[in-house]
Structures are given as structure tokens and as C-alpha cells.
């Protein structure tokens, strides 16, 4: 599953879990993009990679690949799939994508060659039509997944204006965002969103200031999570 993951949220995780079950996958590899195509990334690849590691650590079937963040230049899925293929020459590869992303797929780089490298699974997403016309049925499967109206844009915007992101993203990711002061600057805010309490860049933001009773216990995770946090 490729994505900017800025930050990774439960919409990504539920989609991956559903596809994994429905298609009887052995592993789901989350691949954070390097420099995403036509998208302004506000957070470094390393932060996005580590948040993805934290979010997936409790599921032994979930792994995270650095192939895109370690490759220079714009990330294209053709390169992602070639790299993953060279690491796993005998695997049947599936590429998981959401309804919004798959709507653009016919414009992706070398799209005809993409079909040879993987089978694509497009999942439903609130606010986006999954019945995209023109997609080759033999190459792209469509799957309805539980509807979670969560987006990374909204998560960044919420942090920027001091609203909680608990339960939208995994607990460890909330803690990582707070500890590393992510998404506090003006560039992270969605100017169309209602501003509840404007915060200045210097002002502490409330993700770290939830009432003690609202603070969940430390997330389940492996040693690598406590090391990187
Ligand atoms: N809530 C969701 N339900 C289903 N699929 C999703 C959901 N959120 C994201 N996806 C899919 O996951 C992949 C990675 O998404 P991405 O990292 O760009 O997150 P995003 O929430 O769309 O981010 P942003 O708001 O910054 O555009 C894309 O294929 C996207 O369509
Ligand atoms: O290959 C392309 O031309 C291409 C163009 C746009 C997006 N993608 C991939 O689609 C995935 C989801 O992208 P995004 O921007 O929604 O996070 C991610 O893995 C991107 O690298 C790929």
C-alpha cells in the first residue's frame, strides 16, 4: 500500500486489513512515498516512515518499506513496484489504493506496464466514487471497506488548530506527532477548516495537553517502537 502517510491514520490501516483478509495476503507492505507526485509534503520522509512503523508495529503481517523514501526524485508507482519485485521475485504483488487515488491511475507513469507488475485493489472511501470508468476489470479489483471519513489533511489541520487526533490515528502516532512538534506551522493548516482556537507557531499545541483521564495507555508495540519514539 503506497501513500504519503502524512500522517498515517486508521483509514489506511482498516483498508489494508480488509484487503489483506479478502485477498488472503501473507503480508501488507506499507510504502511511504519519497517526494509524492503533484503533492506538497509538509513532513520529512523519515518522520512519515517512522510514524508508519509505529502504526503498524502491533500487526506482524504489516511491514514498512523504505524503497520510495530512499530513492531520489519524484515517487512513481512503476519504480515502487519494480523495487518491491526485485526484493520478492516470487511474490504475487497487489497494490492497494483508495477510490480517490485510483480515479487518477490512468494518468500514472507507464500505466500499461503497471498492470504487468501487480494486481490493483481499489478500496472505497467516503466522498469518493469507486466506480471509475475506463479501468480494466481484469487488472483492478474494487472492494468496499468500512467507511472511515479520515484524511491526513484533516489530521494535520486538527493538530494545527489544537484539536485532538486521538482515535483518528494510532496512539503511538499521536505521541510521535506531539513529541516531534509536527503539523504546528501555518502550512499544515487547512484554511477552509473552522478555526476553533487559533494557535501561534510558538504556542504549545493541545495534542500533548489532553486531560490526564483522556490519555490512553502506552500503545502496544515492539521494542523498535520505544526505541524510535
Ligand atoms: N479514509 C480512507 N479510506 C480509504 N482509503 C483511504 C483513506 N485515506 C486514504 N486512503 C487511501 O490511502 C492511500 C494513501 O493515502 P494518503 O497517504 O494520501 O492519505 P490521505 O488521507 O488521502 O492524505 P491527504 O489528505 O494528505 O491527501 C491512497 O490510495 C488513499 O486513497
Ligand atoms: O506513478 C504515478 O504516476 C503516481 C501518481 C500519483 C500517485 N501515485 C501513488 O499513489 C499512492 C497514493 O498517493 P497519495 O498521493 O494519495 O498518497 C502513492 O503510492 C503514490 O506514489 C503514483
What does this structure look like?
There is one protein chain. By secondary structure, the chain is an alpha/beta fold. The chain is 33% helix and 10% strand. It contains nine helices and six strands; from the N terminus they run E-H-E-H-E-H-H-E-H-H-E-E-H-H-H. The protein has a three-stranded parallel sheet with strand order 1-2-3. A three-stranded parallel sheet has the order 4-5-6. Helix 2 links the parallel strand 2 and strand 3. Helix 2 packs antiparallel against helix 8 and helix 4 runs parallel beside helix 6. The longest helix is centred in the first third of the chain and has 13 residues. The radius of gyration is 18 Å and the shape is globular. The relative contact order is 0.16. About 15% of the residues have low confidence. Bound molecules: adenosine-5'-triphosphate (ATP) and nicotinate mononucleotide. Nicotinate mononucleotide binds next to strand 1 and helix 4. Adenosine-5'-triphosphate binds next to helix 1, strand 4, helix 5 and helix 7.
Question: Quick summary of this structure?
Answer:
One of its GO terms (molecular function) is nucleotidyltransferase activity. By secondary structure, this protein is α/β, with parallel strands linked by helices. The protein is built from nine helices and six strands, in the order βαβαβααβααββααα.
Amino acid at each position: 500500500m503506497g501513500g504519503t502517510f502524512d500522517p498515517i491514520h486508521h483509514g489506511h490501516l482498516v483498508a489494508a486489513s480488509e484487503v489483506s483478509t479478502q485477498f488472503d495476503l501473507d503480508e501488507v507492505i506499507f510504502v511511504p512515498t519519497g517526494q509524492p507526485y503533484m503533492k506538497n509534503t509538509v513532513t520529512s520522509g523519515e518522520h512519515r516512515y517512522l510514524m508508519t512503523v509505529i502504526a503498524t508495529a502491533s500487526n506482524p503481517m504489516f511491514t514498512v518499506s523504505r524503497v520510495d523514501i530512499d530513492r531520489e526524485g519524484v515517487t512513481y508507482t512503476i519504480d515502487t513496484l519494480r523495487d518491491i519485485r526485485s526484493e520478492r521475485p516470487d511474490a504475487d504483488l497487489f497494490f492497494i489504493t483508495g477510490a480517490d487515488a485510483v480515479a487518477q491511475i490512468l494518468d500514472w507513469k507507464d500505466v500499461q506496464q503497471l498492470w504487468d507488475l501487480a494486481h490493483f485493489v481499489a478500496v472505497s472511501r467516503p466522498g469518493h466514487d469507486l466506480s471509475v470508468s475506463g479501468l480494466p476489470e481484469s487488472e483492478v479489483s474494487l472492494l468496499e471497506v468500512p467507511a472511515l471519513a479520515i484524511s491526513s489533511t484533516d489530521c494535520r489541520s486538527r493538530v494545527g488548530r489544537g484539536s485532538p487526533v486521538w482515535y483518528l490515528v494510532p496512539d503511538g502516532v499521536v505521541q510521535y506527532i506531539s513529541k516531534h512538534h509536527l503539523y504546528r506551522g501555518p502550512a499544515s493548516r487547512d484554511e477552509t477548516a473552522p478555526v476553533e482556537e487559533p494557535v501561534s507557531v510558538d504556542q504549545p499545541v493541545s495534542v500533548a495537553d489532553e486531560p490526564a483521564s483522556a490519555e490512553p495507555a502506552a500503545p502496544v508495540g515492539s521494542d523498535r517502537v520505544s526505541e524510535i519514539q
